[in-house]
Amino acid sequence: IVEGYAYRSASKLKQFLGISRGSLAETEYFFELALDLGYINKDQYFELEEQRSKVGAYLTKFIKAIEANNH
User: Using one digit for the tens of pLDDT, what is the confidence trace for 7-22?
Assistant: First the structure.
């Protein structure tokens, strides 16, 4: 996200936010894998997933705000 912001271009920032969204999806997968392999328990998984979900919501709001400012 910082790298996209450094370009000082809304389109570049939006591109990097999209990449961040993909990384967030990968994180979700790794949380599930860690649970399946027994590295974390269900309580830990649900806590991590709650935090990941919040980050996703913030990311979505940020993307929408950038889109709204560019119209």
Answer: 777 788 888 888 999 9
